[in-house]
Amino acid sequence: MPKTKDHYDTLGVSRAATKKEIQAAFRKLAREYHPDAKPGDKEAEKRFKEISQAHEVLSDPEKRKLYDAFGDDWQAARAAGMDPDAPRSARGGPRGQYQTIDPEELNRIFGGDGGAGSFGDLFGSIFGARSETRGPRRPAEAEGLVQVSLREAYNGTSRLVDLPDGRRLEVKVPAGVADGTILRVPGLLARIQVTPDPQFRREGKDLHVQVPVPLRAALLGGEVEVPTPKGTRVKLTVRPETQNGTRLRLRGLGMPDPGKGVAGDLFAEVRVRLPLPLDDAGKPWAEQTPD
User: Fold this and answer.
1) Cis peptide leading into 164, omega within 30 of 0?
2) Residue 9, by phi and psi: left (phi above 0), alpha (psi -120 to 50) or beta?
3) The whole model's pTM is what?
4) Does the pLDDT at position 119 exceed 50?
5) Per-residue pLDDT averaged across 196-210, rounded?
């Protein structure tokens, strides 16, 4: 398997970077390389996947500790129960290097020849079972990471995942899926990673979006258009004297519930927009001085 680029280099942060610095670096790069910002750019799409993968590992304290200790082998080390805090000598060498010994080699180590007295017999005498080394084995379930955008998570989508044995499986991602969800299909455990969206922010089933509101509408009331993750826009009434930062709720326009329950809400966060340059109606306000 080709060695991947160092996650810290991918995000452009030092190995001592704080979680806040990692998050800030990721958001900056995600906005630059998001597929919606560069549609059809395969190189940008590849870069976005690298950025998302690096963020997924380094933003999680447990995964980051494993990555710092074992590098690209951190997932195998976690599956093997290896301790990232243990001395390197106890981990089998620097960066978590370890060796796999096949059953025949174990037989030679224990002085067996595959018959009586072999490692299989030793295993059976201790645990009351024989080790089957020559018959066909049931393939273990592979683990895979499936990345989807927030909008794909909203609508539901599917992905084709290539397994190490050459098979290709389709993973159907239900609408409303949450980040970190494990989907199980025959032969594969697929963990869903929902990449952050440059426009919408998710909190559970609720979504938040910033909406620019003209100063006149904030003062006197009016209507504004609010984008939705469907790609449509809905009209929202702004009451007179609405303060900057006010959150206006649009019920049922958040993330759908994968269990077919109640959908979340969409919150429009008011961002009052000053009329610059000032028009003739606005200039008298700015030019007024106390008596």
Assistant:
1) no
2) alpha
3) 0.49
4) no
5) 92
Q: What is the pLDDT of residue 131?
A: 42
The three-state secondary structure class of 211 is: strand
Q: Which domains does the chain have, with CATH numbers?
A: 138-196 (2.60.260.20), 200-273 (2.60.260.20)
Give me the pLDDT at residue 105, please.
47
Burial class, 213, CB count within 10 angstroms (exposed 0-12 / middle 13-18 / buried 19+):
buried
The per-type count for the chain, helices as H runs and strands as E runs, is 10, 11
> Rg of the chain's alpha carbons, rounded to an integer?
27
Q: Would strands 266-273 and 247-250 be described as parallel, antiparallel, or unpaired?
A: antiparallel
Q: CA separation (Å) from 276 to 52, 74, 135, 279?
A: 37, 53, 77, 8
Answer yes or no: are the C-beta atoms of 158 and 172 closer than 8 Å.
Answer: yes
Average pLDDT over residues 44-57: 90
CA atoms within 13 A on the CB side of 181: 19
**How far is the C-alpha of 158 from the C-alpha of 179, rounded, in Å?**
15
Q: Which helix or strand (DSSP H or E) is residue 52 part of?
A: helix 42-58
